[in-house]
């Protein structure tokens, strides 16, 4: 079984990833606006900001040992919830260069290890 220190490091790394991602929704919102599925009501910027707030809130929940178990579950749900945006990005990038396409299509299976990581953080929480 993993040590308490390594479990804590893993949780804090996940929290850091989520926190940085959340902040980028406010610092550079335009790329996020472009991948908001058009079937969602309202303006894409509203969804960009809402998802940024959600990522920051989930990061805080994962970072705090007392809320880590719930935070891990919420992180897994968040990673699943953003999957449609990643699908839209992959479709939108079909006419771009090879590097952009590789990044866009790579994000799709990339959600799986993120979900697994979040669930491991949840399971290992005290």
Automatic annotation (TrEMBL):
Keyword annotations from UniProtKB, A to Z: Membrane, Transmembrane, Transmembrane helix
GO CC, any one term: membrane
Localization of this protein: Membrane
Stretches that traverse the bilayer: 71-91, 103-121
Record GO biological process: methylamine metabolic process
Domain Methylamine utilisation protein MauE: 11-81
Name the record gives this protein: Putative membrane protein
Native organism: Umezawaea tangerina
UniProt lineage: Bacteria, Bacillati, Actinomycetota, Actinomycetes, Pseudonocardiales
């Amino acid at each position: 079984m993993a040590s308490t220190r390594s479990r804590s490091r893993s949780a804090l790394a996940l929290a850091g990833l989520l926190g940085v991602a959340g902040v980028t929704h406010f610092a550079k919102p335009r790329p996020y606006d472009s991948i908001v599925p058009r079937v969602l009501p309202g303006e894409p910027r509203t969804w960009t900001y809402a998802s940024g707030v959600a990522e920051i809130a989930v990061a805080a929940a994962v970072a705090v040992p007392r809320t880590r178990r719930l935070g891990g579950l919420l992180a897994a749900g968040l990673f699943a919830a953003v999957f449609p945006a990643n699908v839209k990005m992959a479709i939108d990038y079909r006419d771009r260069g090879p590097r952009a396409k590789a990044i866009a299509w790579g994000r799709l299976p990339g959600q799986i290890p993120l979900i697994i990581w979040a669930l491991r953080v949840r399971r290992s929480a005290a």
